[in-house]
């Protein structure tokens, strides 16, 4: 008698049709949502903006999953993995939105002219096609540096998503509304760890301060708008990142001071190289891990 395996069950659940081995074939992330681009909004700009925010989430997710089996506590391992899963969900929605407005890359999979899904955009773009910031791209460092980076990234993203709930693009507004409670948890979880470590032992204080000093320069390009962001802000779709500066600085300063950590001077702002597709070897190495299986077996099915 044939005994059904979990893979058989997955296959049968989708009518016996082979499914992608990397997550597609299941419910579309924007199923049932009107993805029509509102009048007066350039679809190319909207797609580029969603790539920026989606790539930030995808790359930071990958960084957080590198702590699985390495975190200092089992409970923390689960917490970081859950933060990563939240970000993965945001990445799926944002990359799906980018694909729905016709964003295409240069890779063989995306060069067909068909509308790319979130998997194609995640797995088959090269490093120079990614639009993530330097903050999420940098290596993890030790645990202290990781929670400082998570605090900075989630404080910035939460401030942005809170405002994007009023975006003229209903899809972007819905993604932001869903992300606000997730990012609130990420920020508060990271803040508790920074307080615990900064005001802990001399060694935990030293390591966390070193993490702050390593992360702070990475904030330099978060608050300088790209041309895409300027146009979309004028159209009521995006938010000028300069509007976020004071709120984010206040949050980070409050946490660091309560953690008895020195607050470094705010870095001089500069245009983002990452938003222009200029990345270091760190992203190439990260993408090799993220994309390796999909690229080795591009037509794999269950």
TrEMBL record:
Which keywords appear in this protein's UniProt record, sorted alphabetically?
A: Oxidoreductase
Enzyme Commission numbers on file? 1.14.13.149
- Which GO biological process categories is it annotated with? phenylacetate catabolic process
Please give the InterPro entries that the UniProt record associates with this protein. Answer: Aromatic_CoA_ox/epox (IPR052703), Ferritin-like (IPR012347), Ferritin-like_SF (IPR009078), PaaA_PaaC (IPR007814), PaaC (IPR011882)
User: What's a GO cellular component annotated to this UniProt protein?
Assistant: cytosol
GO terms for MF: phenylacetyl-CoA 1,2-epoxidase activity
**Major enzyme class:** oxidoreductase
Q: Which domain of life is it from?
A: Bacteria
User: Which NCBIfam families is this protein grouped with?
Assistant: PA_CoA_Oxy3
What is the protein name for this chain? Answer: Phenylacetate-CoA oxygenase subunit PaaI
Organism whose genome encodes this protein: Modestobacter versicolor
